[in-house]
Design a protein that fits this description.
The chain is built from eight helices and 31 strands. It is of the alpha+beta class. Among the domains are: 32-155 and 506-525, Phox-like domain (PX Domain, 2-Layer Sandwich); 167-201 and 216-330, 7 Propeller (Methylamine Dehydrogenase, Chain H), CATH 2.130.10.10. The chain starts with a helix and ends in a 5-residue tail after the last helix.
Length: 553
């Protein structure tokens, strides 16, 4: 029994010593920091020279890393060339990477110059740590050896589950129709030189006979059947149709099995698929738009087809072309999106002037009831409306994301922009993840970025291809599959995990970091009062002495 008590006393003593040591570590870090934004804090307190091969002297910068999660710390030594490599890797993946000192023609050897470089590299690292999108990259993890010293910070990465590569041209738009297990795709020649050559080859004078068979296609539409097989997907091509003009948008009506394909010259082809989607027939071509068709949908209740174009017109046409099309509205700017909220009988459009138009679709023609501007007034390319939570989001070609207040039916005139954030990327499309309250964007450089709506900050970046623009995304909330169409002639299926980060780490950031920052604030405040108190005491002594040294009249 005595031995057992002795062992318990020793364990308690060890734990007390450990806690005292951790408190000392924490206190020493608190003395040199003003605020904690991340579980990891970094500094570069000094540098030193080491002699490598051939007795060559090389400067190493000593990086001190402190982990607030478990009060551990370690030191790494890195050469400037390693910082430079990190910067290049990050710049290839992420926009707006903080700068590092420029390389010099000759070796930096003077103490003042080395110390200046040390401070600049320290500032670079601190900004990187505070930016979640940079901190959570594999490049930064490897640089700080976080997989070795802080494995609890591991990020559950996005995984590629399937890929359709049998597409001859860049993807402009696609529709995932789960009920039929089909994928409808419209694609186009994305190379401007190739397009110019094709147009020249296809050109015919008015007296020349048109040769459709030898015409070089600039656009095409495809139908693929697909199936989920084990850990991958199988795609089988059903049919395709080529066009002498680039295709831009595709729509589908489940009731009639009609497909609508919008072209860059404003034409809309109406195709009809057979029962098993093995073939199609061409019904008619609508020719009232004069420029690229940007939005399209069928209303099977009225037999109408709705469309918007960069020609600034919003049209409604009879699907059989038996009536003259209705010119619903002419905007001051070219249209970029068309969204049909059939449940609440509303239509949303966006344009190149940063405007959102909202129409009531309970009468013909639809009535424009509200128009709202994004603060940045950039070209809106991405529009997402979450009908479950009544959120509206837009993204533009200046890299801005706008969040709008509730879009509840009957309250449309109250819609206004409540938040705006982003980066310098040209954002082409976006979707909303209900589970995590995240926005997911696709940009001109082929990046998928996940944003936290709690603070409007990017928290993770995934490179989906080799810098080819992402043109369309579809989000399957149930399977957590993100379908991505790109100019790289592929459609990729990427699975996003339910949680990117461990739950205990997220909880620590919510609660413990707040406590640490409160402790820092109190410590700074006490130091301030102590300094002021010391100063007042000194002044008080002088005043007292002066007060005592007086003479009565």
């Amino acid at each position: 029994m005595e031995n057992e008590n002795d062992d318990n006393n020793k364990i308690e003593e060890i734990n007390n010593n450990k806690n005292e040591k951790e408190e000392k570590n924490t206190d020493s870090i608190l003395n040199n920091i003003d605020y904690v934004n991340n579980i990891i804090s970094v500094s570069i307190p000094d540098f030193n020279e080491k002699y490598l091969e051939k007795k060559k002297a090389v400067t190493f910068y000593n990086i001190h890393v402190f982990n607030w999660y478990n009060d551990s710390e370690y030191t790494l030594s890195k050469r400037f060339s390693e910082f430079d490599e990190l910067y290049k890797n990050l710049s290839n993946l992420i926009s707006n990477v903080p700068s590092i000192p420029k390389k010099t023609l000759f070796k930096v050897s003077a103490f003042e110059a080395l110390n200046k470089r040390r401070l600049e590299l320290e500032n670079f690292l601190k900004i990187c740590v505070d930016r979640k999108d940079i901190f959570n990259t594999k490049y930064f993890f490897d640089f700080l050896s976080l997989d070795k010293y802080a494995p609890e910070l591991y990020v559950n990465n996005l995984t590629l589950e399937g890929e359709l590569k049998e597409i001859p041209q860049g993807v402009r738009d696609f529709l995932y129709i789960s009920s039929e297990n089909i994928l409808l795709i419209c694609c186009s020649d994305m190379n401007i030189i190739s397009r110019t050559d094709s147009r020249i080859s296809n050109f015919k004078f008015f007296w020349e006979k048109k040769d459709n068979e030898n015409e070089i296609p600039l656009g095409s539409a495809f139908c693929f059947k697909f199936a989920k097989l084990g850990i991958g997907f199988q795609f089988v091509k059903s049919w395709f149709k080529t066009f002498p003009v680039q295709t831009g948008i595709i729509a589908y009506d489940e009731k009639s099995r009609n497909f609508g394909v919008g072209l860059d010259n404003g034409e809309i082809y109406i195709l009809n698929g057979n029962e098993d989607f093995s073939d199609f027939k061409e019904n008619l071509v609508l020719k009232y738009h004069k420029d690229r068709v940007m939005g399209l949908f069928f209303d099977n209740l009225t037999g109408k087809i709705y469309s918007v174009s960069t020609d600034k017109h919003f049209y409604i046409s009879d699907i059989n072309y038996s009536e003259k099309p209705i010119d619903v509205y002419k905007s001051n700017f070219g249209y970029t999106n068309l969204f049909n909220d059939s449940l609440n009988k509303r239509i949303f459009t966006t344009n190149e002037g940063g405007e959102i138009e909202i129409y009531l679709n309970n009468e013909m023609p639809p009535k424009l009831i509200h128009k709202v501007n994004t603060n940045n007034k950039g070209i809106i390319r991405g529009l997402h409306i979450n009908l479950k939570k009544q959120y509206l989001f837009t993204s533009d070609m200046n890299g801005n994301i706008s969040v709008f207040s509730s879009t509840l039916p009957g309250k449309e005139t109250n819609i206004s922009e409540i938040s705006n954030f982003g980066n310098s990327s040209k954002l082409r499309c976006l979707i909303y993840d209900n589970l995590n309250n995240h926005l997911i964007t696709g940009d001109e450089e082929g990046r998928i970025t996940i944003w936290s709506l709690k603070n409007g900050c990017a928290i993770f970046v995934y490179n989906s291809n080799n810098k080819n623009a992402i043109t369309k995304m579809f989000w399957d909330e149930e399977t957590r599959y993100l379908w991505i169409g790109s100019k790289d002639k592929t459609i990729k299926i990427i699975r996003i995990p339910e949680k990117l980060f461990k739950e205990e780490i997220e909880n620590f950031e919510k609660t413990k970091l707040k406590e640490i920052n409160e402790k820092i604030a109190i410590k700074k405040l006490n130091e301030k009062y102590e300094n002021e108190s010391d100063s007042e005491e000194t002044n008080s002594d002088k005043d007292d002495l002066n007060g005592w040294n007086y003479k009565k009249d």
